[in-house]
Amino acid sequence: MELERRLLSRIIQALNEGGYPTLQKLKALLKQEPLNSEELRKLINLLLSLPVDISPGSEKVLPCQLGAQLVKMALDRWEGYLPPGTLQKQMTDILKKLRIYGPFAEVFTALLGALWLREEAPASALMMAQQAEQILMAMQGRQQATAPQNITPSELSEWLKLAQQIIEEILSGQYTAVRPTEAQVRGKAPVKPKPAPTEPLQPATLSLLSLSLFPDTHPQAGNLRFLDPQTAEKLPESAEVQIERLRVGGQMYRVYVEKGMEQVVIARQKELVMLRVEGESMLEAGIKPGDLILAEKLSEGEAKDLNKWQSMLGRLVLAILGGEPPNETHLAFLIKRLTKRNGQWLLSPENPAFEEIEIKPGSAKLYPVLAILKPEPTE
User: Given a cut of 60, is residue 181 above it in pLDDT?
Assistant: First the structure.
């Protein structure tokens, strides 16, 4: 685990040329002895809740989120929360995104991926180790390139030796990676989380008026807009459609609601907002990363009204915390269950690894979740 923490620190350093305080804090927490995984997860959850502006020239949040994703993967792996087979795709995707941040971010991430994957995906690990070896050998030929990252020639040789060692191990079939247990991290017996159940959800039908635009699934992509009011008024009642499946961004999704809720979701002439689920805080509600959440967008006043909050108690909500436009990079988009205890309003997760979030009246906008859209397997 110590070697992995060193690699993670190097990756964060390479990502932090902009001097982001959150990345500095992430690196400091990663170096603490003993490792405080609870504090790390709090910061990670905050960073991953920030929306990413993917427009040209707007990548301020992305380095922080990439660092948080990698540290979260490490924590999940050390504590036994990461199911086998999930690392390969995640590491491949992150490596692609990291290339724009220079060779140091790429080489240390490739080394980390090779360490993690050499047992469960040796072909991918070999490719990553060879990628790291190639970059490190090129760096040895131009020592001045290492100066910004404060890497000494001896450390450069150490990382190159590690890459070559992993390559040799994979080619010889001698795998030595040992996954640290939760006991090593927290000093207690490991407790694996229960697999995410599917029982909380049931298939449903989405009833809506013919629509003109379904947005992309980026958290800030916009609203789901129906036909303009003049056209809508002229359409007969038969223009309403009921669907169980729909295509968004080339992916087919099926409509679900929580058990006990009406299975026909009436969405006619309502303004809707769609959000992609990225975290794992609602696993026990049947909501997984990659799902889409369809929520009713209320007016500003209604979304902050306590009477409306009272009517949503116990329901899934889309909560928007933080600043107002145009400072949208300070917003946090969360899917949680709205609860109240001892007079306090709470956004409650359905995963014991996450904590409740207290919200003050008027500090958040809450939209009721109407449906959960789950991706169908591709053939």
Answer: no
121 and 27 in contact (C-beta within 8 Å)?
no
Contact 276, 220 (CB under 8 A): no
Distance of alpha carbon 174 from the chain centroid: 34
Least confident of 8-17, 124-133, 147-156: 147-156
Instruction: Report the C-alpha gap between 17 and 34 in whole angstroms.
Output: 27
Contact 369, 317 (CB under 8 A): yes
Range from 31-45, 99-113, 140-154, 260-274 carrying the lowest mean pLDDT: 140-154
| Structure token pair of residue 131 | 């990628």
Asked whether 287 and 335 are in contact (CB, 8 A), the reply is yes
- C-alpha of 33 from chain center: 27
Which residues face 257 on adjacent strands? 202
Q: Strands 344-348 and 292-296: what pairing?
A: unpaired
**How many whole angstroms separate alpha carbon 199 and alpha carbon 181?**
30
Give the contacts of 342 (CB within 8 A, at least 6 positions apart): none
Q: Is the pLDDT of residue 338 over 90?
A: yes
The CA distance from 123 to 343, in Å, is 55
Tell me the pLDDT tens digit for each residue of 259-312: 877 777 776 656 788 888 888 889 889 999 889 888 888 888 999 999 999 999
Domains of the chain are 2-186 (no CATH), 201-375 (2.10.109.10)
pLDDT at 326 over 60: no
SS3 labels along 169-228 = HHHHCCCCCCCCCHHHHHCCCCCCCCCCCCCCEEECEEEEECEEECCCCCCCCCEEEECC
Q: DSSP assignment, residue 280? A: -
